[in-house]
Amino acid sequence: MIFKRPFFWIVIGVSALLALLPLWGNDATLRETLILSAVAVILATNLNLMIGYTGYVNFGNVIFFGLGGYIGLYLTTVRGWHLITAALAAGLAVSLFTLLFGLAILSLRGAYFALATIGILEAVRAFVSNFAPWGKAAGLYVSFAVYQPLGGPMRAVWLAYFLVIAVFCLSLLLSLAIKNSKFGLALFAIREDEDAAVTLGVNARFYKARIFSLSAFLPAVAGALIYFKSGMIDPGEAFELTVSIEVIVMMMLGGQGSIMGAALGAALYEQLRGYLLTSPSLSHFQLVIAGGLLLVIVQFAPGGLIGWLYRLVPGARRLFE
Amino acid sequence: MSGIFASLLDGLLVGCVYGLAAIGLNLIWGVMGVINLTHGAMIALGMFGLYLLFSSLAVNAYILLLPILAAGFAAGIVVYWMAVYRVVGRPALMSLLSTFAVNMMIIGIGTTLWSTSPYNVNFNLPGISLGPYTFTGNHIAAAIAAVILAGALHLFLYYTRFGRAIRAVADNRDAAELMGISSTRVLMVTFGVGSALAVASGGLIATLFPFTILSGGVYQLRSFVVTVLAGLGRPVGALFAGILLGLLEGAVTPFIAISWIPLIEFGLFVVVLVLFPRGLFGRNA
Amino acid sequence: MRRVFTLFVFALFCWTAARAQQTVTIGFTVSNTGSLNVDSLEQYRGFELWRDQVNAAGGIKAGGKSYQIKFVTYDDESQPQRVQQLYTRMILQDKAQFLFSPYSSGLTATAAIVTEQNGKIMITTGAAEDKTYKLGNQYLFQMFTPASDYLTSALDLLKAKDASTQVAFVCADDSFSSAVAAAGKAYAQKIGLKVVFDEAYSPDTTDFGPIIDKVVASKATAFVGGGHYADGATLARQLYSRKAKLEFLSLLVAPGSPKFTELGNAAFGVTVPSQWEVQSAYKPQFGPTGAEFAKAYQAKYNSPPSYESAGGYAAGLILQHAIEQAGAIDTAKVASALNSTNATTFFGLTKFATGAKEHGLQMGHNMVLAQWQEDKSGKLDKEVVWPAQAQSAQIVFPIWQGPAKTIAQAKQAK
Fold this sequence. Notes:
heterotrimer; A: mainly alpha; 2 strands; B: mainly alpha; two-stranded antiparallel ribbon; about 70% helix
């Protein structure tokens, strides 16, 4: 079914390209740039599952990434697990955690839900800062020895890169699969008018909880991989509210609700920030520029980039999602 | 005097300031359904405003609050036209992002102007000592100022014509317009007043301790907690919710390691959200 | 005649070409935005001053060639993910041969992964945490005294002044401050000082009222801790206005900044463990003296240097010395020269640990303790009070002279 959609093949093609390009040229700089974009896309597309499909705004989305990072780092460094098993375990653990908390707060609507997610984010940060097995405020460090079973630090980083691209591909395909399923239809109904949907027999509570925990899985796996590559994690940077908000911004820039939009917005935002940072004249103003850009888009083009694109080239709608 | 009593008293004093800091957010949210993410930046601007005025004029810092209130009001109006006017009534996410964008711009400009080094307003009123514990004059004055400002707002909302117009628009915007109230003007003034209060609380906070351009963010987060505790509908309720939060901090600090306090605060926050969606003092949901 | 002249010119040309300017590229990131930007800028200025002075004198002279120093730098936004991306870029794209660290232990730890992966030397400064050097590295070299040693001088002095004092450790809940406080507490207990309070506060804490009440209730007479700028300055101010009656107060980082004087009376008597102060009177084996460095820095940047700037400049000096000793800019040779470095610069003694378990950890450098005191005109000024070799004034102890006395009266009574 989803194999019939052209977007499916676009995703496969792009993922293969991302995996092969830096490898072919043995270009680590390109790899570093691409991995940041890939992570941005992973976070934005999974967030889109929540915000775009159900209309529930999750301000705490960085928790998935940060907790995934902590669990992954703990399992590989302290327990000696292999990277792939640790990353998968992290994904499952964070999904479960999200399911439990979701059941508590998903009864809230609109801005109240958003605020509750902020509250949970700050509470998790405070908790981890006090949690001794995870290093409390000092965080966890990867020892260089942990790279040995994977063939040394160079190979380990490349492995992490390929795994991240795999997660990138899966994120987009997951969004596609849900969009074209009955599950997705129920979610859209909830987004449009939750009360009406419930009256028509949609088990809103069940669906919301499912998508919430699902939207946590892949970001958590990505978190485990990325923090493994970074080599250290501490509560201050793992649970930063600003990062969460940036992911929302990326999604909005591209166009919420649209998979291509979320992906495009994330990739472009990441590149724009990277460019602004390394440009000698503009780096002081990058916050102002980014802010100004966001303001203009929210006010005048709320459909984001993809909305603008669809108006320009209506045929694109058949190609993208 | 025992330690816990001193702690509670300190909590009460600082709670008044928390409350004042939140009233602006509560007002704007209650009247127009907009969660103002420039709130933190406004508080930071108030801090710097006081610093600049104080270093050039060396007048009693509390008198300087008056021009700061005026400046805050003007700033609020500017932000309203820049970011809020077009997104009122649209889904909450729009106004969240719109105001966040302005927040980024303010922080960006602020960092360029003042970097992130701390600034201090060296103005001290003599304190009151009870046994080994001293309560600084600045804290007491700040608490009194907070109560006065909150009281002024209450009088404005309930005893003036314009205040009544604001309450009408908060209740039902369309009906108010049918009654001949210019809702745009009301929303604009409300945003201005909300920002003025945020800026003023920033000025008060500046008398209490050193700050940087990033200090406002912490207060914004706390304002969320206070607003949720208070509930929407009665902005002045935020003052009492702030005091409650301060008392909670004061009550808990002597007994547990202080690093656990944020966990307790935010845990409470989530619990109140889920169990008491109307807050403790609010009218509307 | 003409032929001789042409030959001479030709020979001159060859000789000049042989001594032609080569360049050595050094890469590092600076936190232009984000919470670390003030300290990061000071560190950058230290690097810059070193580069400009050395280049003006002809560059680094090694193995018969002279190398002009070229920097390649980017803004890391105080963000670890950016640091990795940028260090990879500097090594692979910009072809940096040596790296300096970003400012702060957290960012340095992340950068270290990249530099180790690529087998490049990184001199770290502005980074005191020990953990990074215990993970099995080969090419990291730390300029700063590690966090585990930060409070040693302060606590030794405290013991000497009042062995019966009761110490409170109150630090910010971030990786650096908590590491320093934990090591400090262990050392205090080891030398027999009584610890009556030991807690960490969230770095977001703005009001320390209830916390100070708790400290007062514990009957502490010495207070050690803090975190970074804003909370350190706030603690100093609130401890003073709440009349905490301390005989000794030592805070991390904040009192090191010239801006600390804005606190007025609250700044008086506050001590800060410092990596370096202008008054530190070390006799350098090469490079400028402390006074010369401070003078050049003041002339160029119109403000006095901080220890971050000194660390930056010293990092350059040590790297230069190692390249000169090695006679080449080849990584293995320079690393070997760094490993055998045992030299005193204006910054102090620099000697690196060479064992595999903690390679690069700084072994030779000592912290000094500086205190804000009043000079004859009543202005606040920092003096070095410990250790004796670097001392420029006696410590004011105890700080709290009694509720009724002003600073001037307290001074007269001394």
